[in-house]
Structure formats: structure tokens, C-alpha cells
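User: Study the fold:
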Amino acid sequence: MNADDSVFLGDVVKTRKPHPCGGDTWTVIRTGADIKIRCLTCGRIVMMDRVTFLKRRKVTVSRLEQSEQEQTEGVG
């Protein structure tokens, strides 16, 4: 696993191809063996396996700070 393969809860990512609604920006709402993402344009939720997600991801636009990640996960 590369350093590029890291995916964190709350990451905002761009995909290689746009969603049918026209948006290409997504937020990660679940991580693990499968990744769940939400379209920031229309709100549609898509779940895919990690390998497929890593192939479709173009770039990570932004990442939550550590303290924000803990609050999102319910820790702290």
C-alpha cells in the first residue's frame, strides 16, 4: 500500500469522470475495505471497493484536520 492509497473520513476527492449530474467532487463518508462517497453536487451516495475507488480517484482536494476527524468519528 502506497502513501497515495490513504483515504480518510471527510476527505474531499475529485474523480476522473464526472457523475451524471455533472459533479466530479465527492466527500468520503465511510472507509474500510469498501469506500462510501457522497456527491457534493446532488447528494447521491455511492459505495465501491477500495481498489475501484483508488482507480477512479483523480486527486484529493482537501482533508480534515486530526481534531475534526476525531469529532466526526465520535471520539473525543
Q: What stands out?
A: The chain has one domain: 3-62. The longest helix spans residues 66-73. The CA atoms of residues 8 and 18 lie 21 Å apart. The two ends are 29 Å apart (CA to CA).
